[in-house]
Amino acid sequence: MRTLVLVAHPNFESSSSQNFLRAGAQTLGEVRYRILDQIYPDFRIDVNEERRQLDWADQLIFQFPLYWYSAPASLKVWQDQVWQTADETHLPNYAGKTLGLVVTTGVAKKAFQAGGAEAFTLSEFLRPFEATARKLQFTYRPPFILDQFQYASESQKMTWLIQYQQLLTMTDTDFGAQQDWLVQRLRQLQVKSPDDTLLAGILGAIQMNQDDLADLQSALAMMKGDL
Amino acid sequence: MRTLVLVAHPNFESSSSQNFLRAGAQTLGEVRYRILDQIYPDFRIDVNEERRQLDWADQLIFQFPLYWYSAPASLKVWQDQVWQTADETHLPNYAGKTLGLVVTTGVAKKAFQAGGAEAFTLSEFLRPFEATARKLQFTYRPPFILDQFQYASESQKMTWLIQYQQLLTMTDTDFGAQQDWLVQRLRQLQVKSPDDTLLAGILGAIQMNQDDLADLQSALAMMKGDL
User: Fold this and answer.
1) Quick one: which of A30, B2, B27, B206 has the fewest CB in 10 Å?
2) pLDDT tens, B191-217?
3) Is the dihedral of CA A51, A54, A60, A61 positive or negative?
4) List of chain B residues whose C-beta atoms are within 8 Å of the C-beta of residue A72
5) Quick one: how far is CA A155 from the chain centroid?
6) Cβ contacts of A221 within 8 Å, gap of 6 or more
7) Backbone angles phi and psi of A32, in degrees to 5
8) Which residue of B has its CA nearest to A128?
9) Around Cβ B76, how many Cβ atoms within 10 Å?
10) What pLDDT does A56 receive?
């Protein structure tokens, strides 16, 4: 799978989370990494080049810190210019491609809920991206959130790293198919080296994916109950 | 009330709805109109000047067409730069000021609902602005939406014009206090000239406000029932 990562961050080099993620992507094969604020410090987007990059990719990743509950301006300039059309009947069509978001936030995930400090969910704040994906016929992946990176434990960071690498290299379908095989192998490894941090990270990542699946199933059950 | 209108629109002069709104604002007293894409065609915001303008205002209006379910990039550049802070403890505090949105959309309002063509509500798409207002302690007014301006009847446009002028010059509280007095006067006028378009527009605007109030009351009743 060919993945194009577009990073929007006005101070990329001074961001520990962004540097961590970039390092995690460097060993991967078909991943292109483009830091918009470095390529276009004056917001002068090369529209044709950006469209070529996007044509190449099977998956587009928008990666950014949350600024005013949205992406930094460089990404909005990119969207407005690269996807500019005369009218709705000439929208680009990216059916077959996937759009994923990688969002870092200085606020804890649990603040993003009704009654929490931020009052609304991240899914709600990111609706403009979800609806844009829908409009352009991208498949929209669940946003990948890294919250309070600077306070995260090494084990948490390792889990995020594995999940990030999975996001950049596997579709959701691929992942489902490979999961059983992976769990088998890891359990064998864990018997041999129960204190290995990387291994604990990988098993943590899988555990979180299984939790997500359980959440989804109970959400679906609730929705069916409501209808 | 001093109102600062910040318009984000890459092609302001060719927009019939924006020209209509600007004409409607010209007769009003303490209203400043700033078209960001004209003042800053290269996105080079004069941060100090923008902060001075905002200090002057009791009310800030963000006015824009919906681009990718959000504002055009010029407004995000403005937000990122004018409200940039070292950290969350140094956020500006606009308690006592009001933030309102004026949003034009080429799609009919009814598309913005579950099961509609756009799948989500405009309130959801505009959550980043609502949460930003909350974070900076602005009072957030209900977004004022003008949908499919080019197909609107003259009577609809007149209604919008009155509502827009009310938005720029009155707080919600002012409006409540003046409504009874206004209805009295208008009924007297209507008896005299039942075919007057302006009058029909004004009465339409009041009717819509009363509908909004009724909607709110039934929404509240439903929420109480749910809890």
Assistant:
1) B27
2) 777 777 777 777 777 767 666 655 655
3) negative
4) 76, 80
5) 19
6) none
7) -105, 135
8) B69
9) 25
10) 98
The CB density around residue A96, as the number of other CB atoms within 10 Å, is 9
Mutate to test the interface with B, among A15, A37, A40, A70 (most CBs of B within 10 A): A70
Cα B74 to Cα A68, A151, B35, B63, distances in angstroms: 14, 33, 10, 11
The mean pLDDT value of chain B amounts to: 88
Q: ipTM of the predicted structure?
A: 0.80
Label residue B62 by pLDDT band (50, 70, 90). very high
Mean pLDDT, chain A, integer: 88
**Do residues A44 and A82 make contact, with C-beta atoms less than 8 angstroms apart?**
no
Q: Where are the beta strands (DSSP E) in A70-138?
A: 98-105
Q: Among A136, A140, A137, which Cα is nearest to A127's? A: A140
User: Residue type for A223, please?
Assistant: M
User: Testing the interface with B: which of A37, A67, A99, A222 to mutate, by most B Cβ within 10 A?
Assistant: A67
Residue type, A132: T
Nearest to B166 by CA among B17, B31, B34, B19: B31
Nearest CB neighbour to A134, from listed B79, B106, B119: B119
| Backbone region of residue B89 per phi and psi (left: phi > 0; alpha: psi in -120 to 50; beta: other values) | alpha
Dist CA B65 CA B147 (whole Å): 10
What residues contact residue B57 under an 8 Å CB cut-off, 6+ apart? Answer: B2, B3, B4, B32, B97
Residue of A nearest to B123 (CA): A124
For chain A, how long is the longest CA-to-CA vector?
Answer: 62
Taken as a whole, chain A contains a residue count of 227
> B60 pairs with which residues across the strands?
B4, B99
DSSP state of B28: -
pLDDT interval class at A226 (50, 70, 90): very low
Whether the CB of A189 is below 8 Å from some CB of chain B: the reply is no
pTM of the predicted protein model:
0.81
More confident residue, A206 or B118: B118
- Whether residue B223 has pLDDT greater than 90: no
| Partner residue facing A43 (CB), from B43, B69, B83 | B43
How near does any CA of chain B get to the CA of A123, in Å? 10
